[in-house]
Structure formats: structure tokens, C-alpha cells
Amino acid sequence: MLTRYKPCFRAGLFVAIALAQFALAFSQSASEPQKEDIIKLEQFVVTGSHLSTSNNVIAPLAVDAVDIAQGGVESNVLELLRKQLPALAGSSNLGVSNGSTGATSTYGGSKLALHNMPTLVLLNGRRVATSGANARGGSSFVDVSQFPVSAIERIEVVADGASAIYGSDAIGGVVNIILKQNYNGSEVGSRYAFSDNDGSYSEKSAYFTAGVSNGRVSVVVNGNYFKSTPLFQTDRPFSSVAASTAYSGVVGTNYLNPTLNSPSQSVPVGMAATATSIANVNVLAPNTYLSGVPGLNLAGDVTLLTEQEKRSIYAGLNFKLLDRKLEAFGDVLYSKDKSFSQLGAQTVTFNGTGTSPQQVAARTPYNPTTISLSPAFRYLPAQRRYSNDATLQRFTAGLKGEIASTWNWETAYTYNRNKLKTQISNVLYGPNLDLAVLGGYDQNGNVVQGGRYSRVYTDYSAPAVPAGYTTAQAATWLAAQRTTSNTVLQPALDPFASSSGIDPASLANVLGTSHADFTSGLDSIDLFLRGELFQLPAGGVAVAIGGDCRAESLKGAPDENSFSSGPIAQRWSGGTFFDVFDKDRDVTAGFFEARVPVTSPKWNIDIAHALDLTFAYRIEHYSDAGRACSPKYGVSWQPVDDEVTVQFSHSKAFAAPTLFQLFGSQQALTVDLRTYFGLPTGPWQGTVRQTPNGSLKPTLTKTDSLGVVLAPKAIKGLTITLDYEDTTLKDFVGRIGSVAILQSVDQLGTASPYAGQVAFNNFPGESGAQAITAAGQVKSFLQTHAANTIPSTLFVSDPAVNLSSAIVRSLDLGVNYVWSFESLGHFSFGTKGTFIIDDKIQSTPDEIYYEYAGLLTTAEGTMPAYRFYTTLNWRKGAWDVTFANTYISAANDLGVGGSTFANSTTLRRIRIPSYLSYDAALAYTVNLRSIFGANWIKEMVVRVGVNNVANMMPPAAPQAFPTTSAGGADSATYGAIGRLYYVSAALKF
User: Fold this and answer.
1) Which of 19, 854, 865, 954 is surrounded by the fewest CB atoms within 10 Å?
2) Is the pLDDT of residue 59 over 70?
3) DSSP 3-state assignment of 107?
4) Residue 457: which domain range?
5) Are β-strands 644-655 and 718-734 bridged in parallel, bridged antiparallel, or unpaired?
6) What angle do CA 110, 115, 117 make, to 5 degrees?
7) Per-residue model confidence (pLDDT) at position 746
8) Is the CB of residue 111 less than 8 Å from the CB of residue 78?
């Protein structure tokens, strides 16, 4: 990678040296006494622009260390921002309540998205490597949980398309997390939080910060530790029941009498069996099996919130080599995060179809009949445990300086590596599961028909099955390959027993652990120059010009039994599957930005007190996805004075397709066809192959943004902000979906745009594939073929495509009011609100737009019509008191939403009530210097508080968030903890 990167590095280094030499030369000439002192406004740079600006320009929304402390949430960046910024709405905000499985899994990380759109996350103004989870095909995101909360100086948020400034991914906006700099002194602190609800949830954290800044050298070091316990679904009333009818002891619609551990206690089994059916078993021994399988509650096995443990160390440096003419800067961050979550034990049914185990044949050791049966199997004590270990290694080194009084430059190199190790324990090794049930040996290893010992493969290393074998043929072939050298003898597995009746020794080589390693890399070099180009009557024209080079890499490697394809693919039942992935790409970019003053406040012109025009343009070239251009035009207007400021911008933004979307491995899966084609009960499934697409284009957007800031002088201390965004997204990457493809092909035949994606006997375009020739052919085929033959004869190709479109309109409101009284103290009131006006999505080009605003859906999560976070703070002397509340408007639960809801005869509109919770906190500062009479110690701040005082729980949403798969409610949006008490102390030196 670095070899490819050398041209960019050399060019950047050459320019940086040239600028440094020029700065040195200029500093020598500029050191002469000047005839006239010039008073300059303080200049600073805010997120959303490369230009230095004075403080009369609208700044981005900011959350600082004081806001974080008063908010009472310090677990990670997503959770604290989700509470304080209502614009973080929707299912793209994933964190500790995220499930462990599925394509959206973050593997213990946290992803944020403004207005539920792709959002760029920066650290100290520069990009960060994405999580390695994307190499599995999951979410592509920057894991914000890896940033230490105690090291944060402030977080700047721009909820507007910003690709013209920063490039790809800045569609919904930018979140820039700025860590502490120019810090003097030292501080140590700790926090403990707990809930008195069931589950005894708790958080504990500790940190230290030390720094020195003497005007020439600034050094800061921070260490952070955080740990939280998990919550299980059974710990909360809205998720306390997660019933399943698939567990050991169940055969079809019958279940083993709870007084028995195995049917072998009641009737002859194996070679001695005489019953010809499950019904006949009851003839021989009444009530061995009962009918009507009751649901088994698995809520106690499933985590609602993941367990987290985080460690980090951060250091920042700034060294003025030649005052402001030349400075060196850098920072280093090392973060190590561990997380744990859990699902119930893996369940399988011995039906011999698809990837399921072979049917349990007659005469196997524990079959109570003389026929083959399909029992369910779920060994309840072996819950699937998901463990993730993520490490972030990042450092930045750069130079910056001034050229004359109006120009400055900056260049830096950034190194990022995000490494992720994952494992799932207690998954089932498919080949050994069949062999464990087969039996056929005695305890000495002798072959005995019906023997209650089995030979299973050691080290989960069964040989590869020849291509083209059916499930039954594969099972027979694997059984024939066993020898004493490649197998181990163990008790045979009783698949008809309840969990309490299963011998754990029979699962010794069946239960195993799958694992995978991922690495995401990002190396970048950036360089920019900014300053005043020339003077106009209204003021100087400010410009910024620069560019950057990036090398992005992504790789993932599963264990040999977790491959998605190949001769030993998908051998873990309960695992996640993908093939080895190792891709990289280069990105080069150049940008230009300008601000042109049209009128000046000095002119006193009516309705044009101050008027600035802005323009930005960025070209970004990807070595794999081509070029994207992003312009942005804007105007900033103060009609009378600085009491009213209006800003308008029109921009185009983009999100480049991910490396996995372009080059990821193929993934085969099955799809249930019963509901959509009116088929009877049974395993009616087709085989689907999801593929990447190297021809994907970037997702493109257009955004119109209008912002207004009111700061009336008549009400000193009052500021009101309104920001309206109207965004249209095109070519969002997605998949048509196998069911939609099959329905279209069945209705239209060869006229369907997807006709070439469906075939019989093999995947389209491959040997032996039979193409679709007429409408109705799919349904006719399904109705005339046996259910268990469908997966091997009906094939669907579902590639990634530029598919969806969306229209998102929102209004963000902010009100802040501060007032002080000499006798009463300092008061401040603030509220932030977001109105989701429209969230319309067109899933496929031939579908209408469906509205998701004001709804709870599986597709978009919770998108309330409006949401507010409001605070009231009082400070006087050593006291600091904060009250806050969160309000989420009522919404409607539509289940999946979109066309699925529109075409459903069973889903209905369920009203979800509004939600309101209150927080309270009290802080007291102890002046230790006056107590101890020593200069080395300053003060101690003690804070106690209660979040969610009334212990409000999230409202149940049974269709969008069913208990069996999503905990029964949107615990991410509403919070699953309930009332949380906390106490913290910070000692400053």
C-alpha cells in the first residue's frame, strides 16, 4: 500500500517543505517594526468549511464537555449524541442495542447517521478508518464508541450535505469529534451508574487527563476506562416474553411430555422400536407426546443491551517551531473495545432440506418409531455467545504555518488501522451433528447396529463432500469416510430428548466456536492553503485550495467452516458466512472554496447589512468507482444587523460504493416462498445468491438548506436557530430482493426486467440452467414440485445494484436563553428539536414512494414526526443544578412498512403513544486549594443525578419490533435501561 502511496507522499512533502521555507523567509522580513498596528478579528475554523472566519458567521451545532457532563450519558459518543441531538433518528443509528446477527450487525460497535442518512465522521477534522465489520458485508461505518468520552473537548455537527468540503459519505452531514488540546493541569475522575430495575444494570468508568501549554509547546495525555454490564430481554417488561416452538423434544406439532426426559424412558427405541408413527407411540405409552406445542420463553437467554468494556490512551502535541510561522502538531489514539452479546441456543430441525441436518432415520439409537422423523433440536444450556474485540490504532503528524498575515497552510499524514476479532461460541458443526445422531458403535468402538456410541470427526475437520451431492448423499458419504485416525468416539446424541435429557458428552464435538478476523485501513495525506486572495470594496475574498490522497483497504478472513462458498462452506449451524475478502483502493481529491463579500456592515445599506456569497467545488477520483464532482453554492445574509442571519445553500453530495459492495464474496441463502405464492405448510424455499457488482455508481444527492439565526438585542442572551434541509437521494445501493424478483418474473415472464435473474436447475447463465420463458411459470413450477426439492431446482440471482431513491425533508430547531442575576445566580435554558417532515423511500425504480415519517418500521426504525431534548440549568457559586427532558411524539407501528404494509392483509396501523422522560442532576465544586492551603491541588467536582426519573419504558411496537427478533420495542430510540442513578467525582490539580 505504501508503495502505491509514495507519489502523493513525496508531492505533499515537497510542497510542505517549500511552504515552510517560504514561511521562514517571510518571518525574517516581517520581524521588522511596522509603522501601524493592525487590529484583527480572531479567526477560527469550524466544521463545514476550510475557510477561517470571524465569529459573526453561523457556527455548527456543538456539544462540549459541559453538555456531556450535564447530559448524564458517558457510555459512548453515539449514546450521548442520540440523547442530546434529536436529528440522530432512525435505524441507521446502531449501538449497544444492536443485534448480533444479520447484515446490519455492527459487531459491538456504534454507528451514527443524521436524519437517517449516510454521515461522515471525523476525528480532529480528519477521516477515520471504518470498522472491519464491512468486510463481512455488514454496515459500513466509523465506530464512534472507540473515541474516549473523557478526552472530548467538543463535538461539532453540520446537518447538511458537505461532500464539496469533505468528499464521500457527507450526505446527511458531518460529525467532527475534537479531542482536547492546549490543556493545562491535570484531572482524574470516575463515575458509577446503576439501575434498580431487574437485571441490575451498571456502568463504571475512570479517566485521567494531564497537560501543559506554555504558549510554545502544548502536550495533553488522556487515559479512559469504561465497563457496562449486559441487560437481558427478561429484565424488562416490554421484552420479557420471546416465545419459540422450536426446541428439543418437539416433533412436528407434538412435544415430549414434560415429565419425561426422553421417549426412551417410555417406549422401546432404536432397533427395538415398534411404533409406526408418533401417534402410535402414544398408543404404546399414552401421553408420551402431547399435541399443540407451547411456546418456550427464551427472553432470559437473549441480550437486550450488549456488555461493553473499553480502554483507550490519547496524546496530542503542538509545538511552535517559529511562533505562528511554522508549527508541528500530531496526535495518537489507541483504543481497545470488547463487547459481548447473546442469543438463545441454536435450533435445527432434522428434515434433510437445504442446510438442515439429515432426517433421523429408523433404527438409529433413539428413534422411537420405525420411520424417519424430523425432530427439532435445541440444547438450551448452550446459548450462542458473541464476543467482539475491536482495536483502533491511529496517529496524525503534520506541519502548519502562516504566510503573511492573511495566509496559512497545513499538511498532515494520518495512519489508521481498525482491527476486529469476532467469535460465536456454541454453534453446531453440521457434519458431526448428523454423525452424532447416527450411532452404530458400542463403547469400545466396535460396529454395532443401533449402538449408542458414535464416531465423529476430530477438530471440526470433516473432509470435503464431492460436488453435486444432495443432503442425504452427503451424509452417507461423510459417514463412510470415518476412520479411527480422523474420528473420536463419543456417546450418541438423542435428538428426541428434552434439553435436560441430553448427555453433554454427546455434544463434545458438535458444539464449537466460529471466528473471523477483520482489518480496515486508511492512510491519508492532505494539504491545503487558505487566505485572502484580494480586496473588494466590501472586504477580502477568502479562498481555500488543496487536496488529499487516501489509500483505503479492507480484509476479512473466516475460519474454514465459515466460508460462504467452497467444498466445506457453511458447516456451522448458527454461524455467519463469508469468503476471504482482501481489497484496497486509492482516492485522490482536489477542492476549491471561496467566500466573496458583497456588502459590508460599515455601509449601513437597508436590507443588506451584510451579504456574502460562498462557493465550493470538490473532485474526487476512486480507482475502482470512477470520479464524482460535488459543488456547493451558498449565500449568507444579514438584512438589518446581526440580530437576524439567514443562510441558504444548494449542494450535491455523494457516497462511494463500499469495497464490499463492489468486490465482496457471493453469499448463498434460502428464501421462504409460502406466504407470497399461497403454498401449503412446508419448507418451500428457493436458493438465492447475493453477489457484488463492480459496476456500481456512487449514491448521489441534492440538498437545499435554509438556516436562520435570531439573536434579538431586546432579549439579551436569547438565540433561536432554524435549519431546514431538503435532500433527494438517487442510486442508493441495495438489492431488489428475491421475492420481488420472483413475483415480477411470475407476473410478466420474459417482459420482467428481472427475467434473466431466475432459472431452474442452476443459477442463470451457468451450466444446465433453464431460463424463464413465460408468465406464471414460477408459481406453476412451485405447485407441481415437492417442497423439499425446490431449493435444488429454483435459483435466483440478486446482485447489488444502484436501486433506491429517497426524499428527506427535516427542520431542526434550537433555542438557547441565558440570563444572570447577581443575587440569584446564572440560568440557562436550551432546547433542541427535529421535525421529520418527509422520509419518503422508493425501494425499486418501478415502485411508488412510501412515507416513513411519523412511523415505526422495520425498514427505517423510529422516525417520529418530532422529537425534543430540553434542559434548564442553574449555577451559583459552587452549585450546579440541571433538569432535562426528552420528548418523542406519538407515531404509528406499520411493521416492515412500505409496499409490504400496503399489500398486507394482516398488518395494521398501531398507534404508539408519545414518550416523555425527565432527568435531574446536582453538582457541587469543593475548593480544595482553600481547604488544604496548597497550590498543587485545585478543586473537586462531585455530581449526582438520575436519568429517567419516572422510570419510563419504551412503548411496545409488536409489528416493527417483534419480541422474538427485536426485543418488542425500539430500545435504541427510547432507551431500555429505565431509571439510572449515577455519581461522579473529578479531582483537578
Assistant:
1) 865
2) no
3) coil
4) 242-297+342-377+437-510
5) unpaired
6) 70
7) 87
8) yes
Contact call for residues 410 and 535 (beta carbons, < 8 A):
no
- Position 153 scores a pLDDT of 95
Residues 6+ apart with CB under 8 A from 680: 674, 787
Averaged pLDDT, 904-912 = 93
pLDDT band at 103 (very low <50, low <70, confident <90, very high): very low
How many CB atoms lie under 10 A from the CB of residue 988?
17
Spatial separation of the C-alpha atoms in residues 181 and 213, rounded to whole Å: 9
Q: What is the mean pLDDT of residues 690-710?
A: 93
Question: What is the C-alpha to C-alpha distance for residues 71 and 65, in angstroms, rounded to an integer?
Answer: 10
The contacts of residue 671 (CB under 8 Å, 6+ apart) are: 685, 686, 688, 738, 739, 796
Separation CA 834–CA 902 (nearest Å): 27
Task: Report if residue 6 sits inside a domain.
Answer: no
- Would you list the DSSP string of 837-906? EEEEEESSTTS--EE-TTEEETTTEEE-SEEEEEEEEEEETTEEEEEEEEEE--EEEEET-HHHHHT-SS
**Structural domain count of the chain:** 2
- CA distances to 181, 323, 483, 543, 638 from 326, rounded to whole Å, are 18, 6, 73, 20, 36
Q: Is 770 exposed, middle or buried (0-12, 13-18, 19+ CB in 10 A)?
A: middle
pLDDT in tens, 755-812: 999 988 888 888 888 888 999 888 787 777 655 555 557 888 999 999 899 999 999 9
Q: How far is CA 957 from CA 854, 862, 865, 967, in A?
A: 14, 10, 16, 9
Instruction: Count how many Cα atoms sit within 13 Å of the Cα of residue 670 in the half-sphere of its side chain.
Output: 19
- Pick the closest to residue 961 from 888, 891, 886, 869 (CA basis): 891
User: pTM for the full model?
Assistant: 0.90
Check: CB of residue 197 under 8 Å from CB of residue 947: no
Tell me if 919 sits within 8 A of 944, measured CB to CB: no
- Give me the amino acid identity at 371: I
Q: Which residues of 206-241 are buried (b: 16+ CB within 10 A; e: fewer)?
A: ebbbbbeeeeeebbbbbbbbbbbbbbbbbbbebbbe
**To 5 degrees, how large is the angle CA 666–CA 667–CA 669?**
150
Residue 38 has pLDDT above 80, yes or no: no
Cβ-based neighbours of 713, under 8 Å, separated by 6 or more: 643
| DSSP 8-state secondary structure symbol assigned to residue 427 | E
Task: Indicate whether 23 pLDDT > 60.
Answer: no
* Reduced 3-state DSSP string for 557-616: EECHHHCCCCCCCCCEECCCCCCCEEEEEEEEEEEEEEEEEEECHHHCCCCCCEEEEEEE
Burial class of residue 493 (count of CB atoms within 10 Å of its CB; 0-12, 13-18, 19+): buried
Look at residues 767, 799, 831 and tell me which one is the last residue of a structural domain: 799
Whether 980 is in a domain gets the answer: no
CA 51 to chain centre: 32
Burial environment of residue 54 by CB neighbours within 10 A (0 to 12, 13 to 18, 19 or more): exposed
Residues 178-195 have a mean pLDDT of 95
Above 60 in pLDDT, residue 100? no
Does residue 267 lie within any of the structural domains? yes
DSSP 101: S
Residue where one domain finishes, among candidates 771, 799, 827: 799
Per-residue model confidence as pLDDT tens digits over 62-85: 899 999 999 999 889 999 999 999
User: Which amino acid makes up residue 746?
Assistant: D
Q: Is residue 489 domain-resident? A: yes
- Could you tell me how many residues make up the chain? 989
> Cα angle at 134 between 132 and 139, to 5 degrees?
120
| Distance in angstroms (rounded) separating the CA atoms of residues 333 and 123 | 10
Percent of the chain predicted with pLDDT > 90: 73
If we measure between CA atoms, which residue out of 730, 711, 708, 766 comes closest to residue 849?
730
Q: Could you please report the per-residue DSSP string of 961-986?
A: S-HHHHTTB-HHHH-SS-SEEEEEEE
Amino acid symbol at 831: T
